[in-house]
Design brief:
This protein is an alpha/beta fold and 358 residues long. Helices cover 25% and strands 26% of the residues. The strands form 3 sheets. A 6-stranded antiparallel β-barrel has the order 12-15-14-13-16-17. A 5-stranded parallel beta sheet has the order 3-2-1-4-7, sandwiched between helices. Helix 1 crosses helix 6 and helix 3 runs antiparallel to helix 4.
């Protein structure tokens, strides 16, 4: 007996394919949907395996093949124009202002969890739930409180990128992979003979040269210490983010990290790891996903980047205008970059998050 109807965002990769397969085996009526996010011929081809390199005819063909092998219907939707307007313009504006953007967070809320299911409804296809191949979990469907939870596989957990979706989006969403490890998902794909079983994972938003998306040319600038002393040259501040260590080819007694980006003067301030440590920061545009908006300071865990460990014992104090002040324990954290997201956790529960601003 069917559990209801569900559309699954399918890219042709192993995660989304197995997500659709698991839901079908669980008794759902499953339909695969794919979005094209690249405008043909507008950007240089990105041969690296990244999110923005997935699109167009190749992506749709892979998704169609995956759905055919599972035995479900498949529909494709062109989201390239909206993706450029909402995500690529944000990506460019943030980098050129000297901030570090987080396009995956934006894309999840406005494109993957927003535009795509809306486009499916507008086409006349009705469904009860929407699902993706994210490694995350949610509270049970019959739970009175809808909460986002970390995925079982801590190495693949993607809850960091999902904190900014709306409660309504979360309430209608299923995460079939949340209780599995990546290895288990590949074994399932092999068992059912899916061609994506050994397909490499997509890595990051874009792995090509940033200037191809930013529409700019290299521009010589200076590396400087916090004292103002010039220690080297670079070809554009947009190639760096705060906390970055790789790519700073400067002879110095200690490894150097990016401390500050000065877009107006094309200067990149560098310093030692100790200089990179910060104990306090403010964040804006707070989105409280699994709890009501807090009115008083509280203690929780905070993750400052997707690949960073959770820092336990942080104090989060609500401020006016959907802002928060975060005090980190001990020596603090490194790589606290304006534009990146600080995501707050209580154990496995994703409380919410905000965008670091100062």
């Amino acid at each position: 007996m069917a559990c209801g109807s569900v559309i699954v965002g399918v890219s042709g990769g192993v995660d989304s394919s197995v997500a659709a397969l698991l839901l079908k085996d669980a008794g759902y009526e499953v339909i695969g949907v794919t979005m094209n996010i690249r405008q043909l011929g507008k950007y240089r081809s990105d041969i690296n395996n990244s999110c923005f390199s997935i699109g167009g005819e190749e992506c749709i063909a892979s998704a169609q093949q995956a759905c055919a092998s599972i035995g479900i219907e498949h529909y494709a939707f062109n989201c390239a124009e909206e993706f450029e307007e909402k995500i690529l313009s944000y990506f460019s504006t943030e980098f050129l202002s000297g901030r570090t953007p987080n396009p995956c967070v934006q894309c999840n809320r406005y494109i993957k969890f927003g535009l795509l299911p809306d486009a499916v409804r507008a086409s006349g296809i009705s469904f009860d739930y929407y699902a993706t191949g994210h490694y995350a979990r949610r509270s049970p469907l019959d739970s009175p409180c809808v909460q986002l939870l970390r995925g079982k596989d801590s190495r693949k957990d993607q809850s960091y990128f999902l904190y900014n979706i709306t409660r309504e989006q979360l309430s209608q969403h299923l995460f079939p992979l949340g209780e599995y490890t990546k290895q288990e998902i590949r074994l399932i794909a092999e068992k059912y003979g899916l061609v994506s079983a050994n397909k490499p994972d997509s890595q990051d938003f874009y792995r090509g040269d940033r200037k191809d998306l930013l529409g700019i040319k290299p521009k010589r600038g200076k590396f400087i210490l916090s004292s103002g002393r010039v220690v080297g040259e670079h070809t554009g501040y947009w190639n760096f983010t705060i906390g970055q260590r790789k790519g700073i080819c400067i002879a110095y007694p200690e490894p150097l990290y990016v401390l500050e980006i000065r877009a107006d003067s094309n200067e990149v301030v560098v310093g030692t790891r100790d200089e990179c440590l910060k104990r306090h920061f403010e964040a804006e545009h707070a989105n409280w996903l699994s709890i009501e908006e807090p009115k008083a300071p509280f203690i929780c865990g905070v993750k400052l980047r997707s690949a960073s460990p959770i820092i336990e014992g942080a104090e989060v104090s609500p401020l006016a205008g959907c802002r928060v002040l975060v005090n980190l324990p001990g020596d603090g954290g490194t790589g606290i970059a304006p534009g990146q997201s600080a995501v707050f956790y209580d154990g496995d529960i994703v409380l919410g998050g905000a965008v670091i601003c100062s």
